[in-house]
Amino acid sequence: MKNFRHLFLFALLAGLLIAQTASAQTTEQPAPVTQTRVGVSPGQKVSLTLRDAITQALENNRDLEIERANVQMNEADLRAARGWYDPTLTSSFFYERRNTPQTNTLAGGPLTTSLSNSTALFQRLPWQGSSVQGSYDTNRATDQNTFNTLNPQFRNNFNLTFTQPLFRNRQMDQGRRQITIAKKRLDLSDSQFRQRAIEIITQVQRAYWDLVFARRDYEIKRESLEIGKTQLARNQRLVDAGTLAPADVISTRVEVERRTDELEAAIEGVQRAENALKNLMLQPSNSEMWNAELDPVEQPQVSTGEMLPLQDAVRLAFQNRPELEQLRLRGDVNKVDVDFFRNQTKPQVDFFATYGTAGLAGSQRPQTPGQTNLFADLFVRVNELSVKAGLPPLQGATSSAISDSFIGGYWQSLGNLFKNEFRTYRFGLNINLPLRNRTALGNLGHALAEGRQIEAQQQKIQQQVEVEVRNALQSVITAARRVEAAKNSRVNAELQLQSEERKFEAGQSTNFFVLDRQNALIAARGREVRALTDYNKATAELQRVMSTTLSSNNVQVRK
């Protein structure tokens, strides 16, 4: 009995202390909500659609600019590879003065001078690895050899050579290999550019709906705080009227402070979501939008269209996914390497045919008396011997006279060249036969192993793509069901709160149940918003895995 009295006095004292504490705090207000956000100017607000966010991201994103530069570099590489078929013009011009020691009296004087020019044009042909080369040589020479009838002499030579590989370099040579690979790499960079654009658009979609959720979550938290404050004021009036215990005011105040904490966290969530979206769509800090508040005007919605069947979705993904396209292009490049290195294992046998023509002209050297007498005496003595031997005498001049067509300068020599009277023909084979050729065999083995590796990677990526499509389809279906469930939960939570408030006003419920129903409604509204934004994010992910992001958003990217 004595212990019971002690417990009763302890409970009464505790009740008085609680009442005094409540009465002392009735005039206090909840902590104010901080609305200041770092880097955001008050009153500066920009309305933003999803289309605008995507457009700005594609225009300003640095990663996309890097991929665009890759495309341009591969275009330049293709132009450089096509330079394999650019004609090559070479020319040399020189003057030569040569003093050669002589021991032969018939060789003439030791001093010769010449002025020479040699020009050649080489052109590879895009058919079967063939090539053609034309060369033109001209020379003006003077010497002291008295037996040369023309001095100075003008010589012109023109040669045309055609070369055709028969084994190595006929089906595939280094130039055609580089051009084909450059084309494939350009297609590869185009695919990588589209892949990066798809990834950026998907990231923007996610960030946009994250910002929509963060702002809506902030509104829910702010409204819940206002409801809590209203409940606190109502409870205070009831306490003042003596119809409600002071402890209910304390429990409501605790709830208000908790909701204030959630609101502050929601403000930070808005800030982070907004910065994430700005980071995707804006240039570095020189943009005024960095200091503005972004207001996404679009609201998440659930599509009422029919879902694409799994088989069609997988087939569409296999056709459109850039990763698979890039592997196919890598496989094409590998096939080019295999063909080239297999061709390099063959012996090199080249057929060639050369046609040439020559022209000559010059000034006739005057004969010395010694030369004239020598030839005249020689002719007389030969004729005397011929008569004694019963042979007819020699008829003709007793000098070394030449045709008038060779008398002249450079232009006369060029004219003789074009007369095409002095022709040269040559054809044959050039053979280069390596005895082991381990370099080509090793390169071929590497290319074959790389082809098997690419095939295995393609099978792996196809399996991964199919799994992603299955998961994305399931996410869309699940998100749609979640939206419906969350909507029903929110409607029922509203009805529960209304019913609980009526019961509280009638004295049939307590403050605890009212606050509990309020929290249930707040959570239900948050789940509904989350389910809606998750549905739109799941739709964006499905577009990504099927690689329909660009067409679904009516986007055409410029490389």
- Structural class label: alpha+beta
Q: Which strand order do you get reading across the main beta sheet?
A: 2-3-4-5-7-8
* Percent range for β-strand residues: 15-25%
What oligomeric state is this?
single chain
Q: How many E-type strands?
A: 8
* Low-confidence blocks of residues: 1-34
Radius of gyration: 49 Å
Distance between the termini: 92 Å
Bulk shape: rod-shaped
Query: How many DSSP helices?
Result: 12
How is the main sheet built?
6 strands, antiparallel
Q: Which percent range fits the helix content? A: 55-70%
Mean of residue pLDDT?
84
SSE series: HEHHEEEEHHEHHEHHEHHH
Describe this structure in words.
By secondary structure, the protein is of the alpha+beta class. The protein has 12 helices and 8 strands. It has helices at residues 2-25, 50-60, 62-82, 174-241, 246-281, 310-320, 322-344, 369-388, 410-419, 438-505, 511-546, 549-552; strands spanning 45-48, 88-99, 111-124, 131-143, 150-165, 293-296, 348-364, 423-432. The model is unreliable at 1-34 (pLDDT under 50).
